[in-house]
Task: inverse folding
């Protein structure tokens, strides 16, 4: 039996754990899928805070329109506490807030984005809020282009009388919804891959790295480079299996809802996070063979990084300090590889490169620690 | 086959090997004896180039030890003191994995694995994982993993620790068979009976030093006590110890329970002289036993402590 086969055989012996972990992932993913289906999208009354610096006819019209079907709270404060509002979104006290700048009307007439919205981008409420605002300004713009004047009352009445679902069901919205789902799915898959590989590979390789077994391997004529390459190859095979399972599982789950999704970038991102995870494991393996420490570190690294990288909490609602820290974490760059539905390979190149550099850095650190451990004996 | 000359190994302040010298010839079983912590495992690890050493020379198969010398490594096997087997792999898979580190050809390896499993008597247990094996069977598996590739030189580090009597006998018989096949075995133990039974030569270690070496006969001759006689009398006599010590060849007389233990420097008519002494003094003895000095006596005399200390 080669080392390659020996390690794969070990993974096979853990097949029940592997099936449980992958099944758990898929159960979450299916639940996610059902809850986010655009087919079942229904509007609901939103809780929206509006900070109106403009106090213009246009802003009043928007507030009146939104107030028709939602719980709207208007604030005219000069310096509102943005952090407190973000906290309210995090605590689910409101669905989002809209900031109308002082120069809203001039922005509108010059065709620039008029208002700024903040909400949990993974939620359907965010989509609903965006749709409502877009509807209002689309109609207002159409009226302004025709008459050259702002008739907010007329537009509000028009929108209140009938809801134009065409915008709601437009191709863009559907593509955006597909993208949102797949982005969340890939975020979750990235976190799961980290946790899965760190625990599974960590536990298996801790056995191979135990001093007694290592001694036997070291006295054998097998070259260290041969042993290492077979070991890494077997881990890559397992990593590829997990990535393929999660990626193609997503394709099967969302067969009809993949338009507008940058699948190639997502697949690449999953491969890169797998490589990064294996390099992290290499560092952990060079530090300890204690399974309790390995499992503890796996959870600490995976959960900690997922929290700080915007996978578990929307990036936008995190504090500025947390956002600054996140930019130094590889999982954040992993999410940036597929951050936009229309992101190009050129646009994804930088976060891909950063993830690759993190992988290389951890591999080198692992090699240094491994050599230091060998020479210390 | 092995030549170790004046090897010194330090762990900071502690000297694990203190100018330790040792050699083994083809087809020999050489015992490395000594209490726990005397440096046996360190000596083996230096020979296997698992540990670097501070000074001295070690040659195996006529070549200096080097962790990159794969031709030499191919001819060596190791049965470590600690069990070095995979808990998740069964008996066959464990032996196959370790044999695979030496033998790439799968057909040849399969044959060797079968032979090794057969050799240690684990044929019935080939699909068992180590968790389902008794302590003795695990030890046998540990041995099978070390010998499957048929090494010319085998290091066995305390292979019978915590093993039941049946498995111990099985292991000892196996070592004898390996010697019969022409292999050289370096056998460390602190069980003297095993060493006496198995080894052609012995090296006694204490505090990292080689304090004596040779066959059992040579080692016995190297110490003052050659024979011990234990005798007990019906009546107590306060001057008896002094009178016994005046017999020919007596080195010393000690008390052992209610009896006297007489140490003789030579094995010449000691028992006859003692019986003559008993008859001439009209004494009645309750117990009288004689035995040659053992390795335990040798160790005790050389180091001043019991081997199992």
Result:
């Amino acid at each position: 039996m080669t080392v390659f086969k020996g390690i794969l055989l070990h993974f096979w012996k853990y097949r029940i754990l592997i099936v449980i972990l992958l099944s758990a992932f898929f159960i979450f993913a299916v639940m996610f899928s059902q809850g986010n289906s655009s087919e079942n999208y229904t509007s609901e009354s939103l809780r929206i805070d509006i900070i109106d610096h403009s106090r213009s006819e246009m802003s009043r019209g928007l507030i009146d329109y939104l107030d028709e079907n939602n719980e709207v709270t208007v604030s005219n404060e000069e310096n509102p506490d943005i952090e407190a509002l973000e906290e309210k979104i995090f605590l689910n006290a409101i669905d989002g807030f809209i900031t109308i700048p002082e120069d809203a009307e001039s922005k509108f007439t010059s065709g620039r984005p008029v208002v700024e919205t903040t909400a949990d981008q993974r939620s359907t409420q965010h989509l609903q809020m965006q749709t409502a605002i877009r509807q209002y300004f689309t109609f207002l713009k159409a009226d302004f282009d025709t008459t050259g004047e702002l008739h907010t009352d007329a537009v509000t009445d028009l929108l209140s009388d009938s809801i134009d679902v065409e915008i709601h069901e437009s191709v863009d919205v559907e593509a955006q919804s597909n993208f949102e789902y797949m982005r969340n799915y890939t975020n979750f898959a990235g976190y799961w891959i980290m946790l899965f590989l760190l625990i599974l590979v960590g536990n298996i390789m801790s056995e191979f790295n135990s001093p007694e077994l290592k001694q036997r391997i070291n006295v054998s004529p097998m070259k260290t480079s041969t042993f290492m390459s077979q070991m890494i190859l077997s881990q890559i095979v397992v990593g590829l299996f997990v990535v393929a399972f999660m990626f193609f599982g997503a394709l099967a789950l969302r067969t009809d809802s993949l338009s507008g999704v940058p699948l190639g970038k997502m697949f690449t991102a999953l491969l890169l996070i797998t490589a990064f995870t294996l390099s992290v494991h290499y560092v952990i393996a060079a530090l300890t063979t204690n399974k309790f420490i390995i499992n503890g570190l796996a959870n600490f690294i995976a959960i900690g990084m997922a929290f700080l990288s915007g996978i578990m909490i929307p990036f936008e609602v995190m504090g500025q300090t947390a956002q600054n820290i996140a930019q130094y974490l590889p999982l954040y760059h992993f999410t940036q590889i597929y951050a936009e539905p229309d992101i190009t390979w050129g646009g994804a190149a930088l976060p891909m490169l950063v993830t690759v550099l993190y992988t290389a850095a951890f591999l080198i650190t692992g090699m240094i620690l491994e050599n230091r451990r060998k020479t210390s004996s | 086959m092995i030549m170790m000359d004046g090897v010194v190994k330090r762990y900071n302040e502690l000297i694990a090997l203190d100018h330790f010298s040792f050699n083994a010839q083809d087809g020999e079983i050489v015992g490395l004896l000594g209490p726990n912590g005397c440096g046996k495992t360190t000596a083996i690890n230096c020979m296997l180039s698992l540990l670097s050493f501070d000074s001295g020379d070690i040659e195996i198969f006529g070549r200096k030890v080097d962790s990159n010398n794969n031709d030499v490594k191919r001819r060596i096997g190791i049965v470590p003191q600690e069990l070095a087997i995979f808990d998740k792999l069964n008996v066959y898979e464990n032996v196959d994995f370790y044999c695979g580190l030496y033998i790439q050809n799968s057909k040849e390896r399969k044959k060797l694995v079968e032979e090794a499993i057969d050799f240690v008597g684990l044929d019935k247990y080939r699909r068992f994982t180590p968790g389902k094996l008794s302590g003795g069977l695990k030890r046998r598996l540990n041995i099978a993993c070390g010998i499957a590739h048929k090494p010319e030189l085998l290091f066995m580090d305390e292979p019978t620790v915590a093993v039941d009597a049946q498995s111990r006998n099985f292991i000892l018989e196996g070592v004898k068979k390996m010697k019969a096949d022409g292999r050289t075995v370096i056998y460390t133990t602190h069980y003297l009976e095993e060493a006496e039974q198995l080894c052609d030569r012995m090296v006694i270690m204490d505090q990292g030093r080689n304090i004596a070496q040779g066959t059992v006969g040579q080692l016995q001759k190297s110490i003052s006590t050659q024979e011990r006689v234990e005798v007990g009398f019906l009546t107590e006599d306060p001057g008896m110890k002094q009178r016994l010590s005046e017999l020919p060849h007596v080195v010393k007389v000690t008390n052992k329970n209610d009896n006297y233990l007489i140490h003789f420097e030579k094995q010449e008519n000691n028992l006859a002289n003692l019986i003559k002494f008993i008859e001439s003094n009209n004494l009645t003895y309750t117990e009288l036993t004689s035995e040659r000095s053992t390795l335990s006596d040798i160790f005790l005399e050389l180091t001043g402590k019991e081997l199992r200390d």
